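Q: How would the structure tokens look for this protein?
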Amino acid sequence: MPAMIETRALRKVYPAASRRRPTPPCGTPTPAGGTPHVAAPRQSGEIAALDGLDLEVNEGEFFGLLGPNGAGKTTTIGVLTTRVNATSGAAFVAGKDVRTDQVSVRRRIGVVPQRPNPDRGLNVIENLVFHGAYFGMSHGDTMQRAMALLEQFEIADRAHAKVDDLSGGQQQRLMISRALLHEPRVILHDGHTVGLDPQARLALWDILRGLHADGRTIVMTTHYMQEADELCDRLAIVDRGKLLALDTPSRLRAQAPGSTLIDLTLEGDVAAAAALCRRIAGVQSVDEAPGELRAYSERGGELIPALIHAAEEAGCRVQNINLSKPSLETLFVALTGRKLA
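A: Here is the predicted structure in token form.
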């Protein structure tokens, strides 16, 4: 079966010296067509938001893009929604080329943006009616479908309320209703739980699980480990526009080195401390960052005294120590040397 979403050697390069042209938020209707697609060689000083990204998402799959801010997640969503033109490579949604068949792609996707972007001059139901009109739906069909979605997501009593009178969680439910109105085959979520309180976030997780159970293909970007772990069938860990790992959450956790990550916050020469820590028996590997040293070990916390001694021998002062079990973030740190947040 062909992939529902596919990217091939996808690259997006921005000039470092000039400001990026602003693009409309995800989910905002845009004219058909778009600017020409021009492959350009990478020049000195350019920034590669995507650097040869290859992905395949199966039909009916809940797929996650996990990475920190600046990893290339939102740029990937931008390409898939036709808002961003790739520098080179190709991307397809339900077999349609996002560069040459943009209208067909837009009819097949529903987008929940990073932050709610409804028309705040309209009330809830008017926002949905406008969206339906953009997709050529009749007024009667739009009203019937819109009210059914508002009922499903438990905000039908707010149908005639102004958007600014909704809570953050209610606004996100409106965005999901808008994304589903024209019955797309693929749902694209770009950081949809940003700024939500825990209760609203859990409620949205239940909605997403329901959509997945109905057979929707869902692609979600996130930097929340728990969210990725609990919702996604498969995860792609990305950073600086590159794919670092791709598998189920459980298999990715199993790839994390060691049984314990020991994180030391240091004041002093971290590089010298790291060199000494690498000599300690039982330490599998050591990563270093400004003011921080991370050691992976199968012997858990018993190596803490030796690590402290090595750091002090290097002239460092230990300010804090933290132990954690293998996790998606542990794997991410091992792959990149930095944390997800």
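DSSP finds eleven helices and 14 strands in the chain.

The mean pLDDT is 87.

Upvote if useful.
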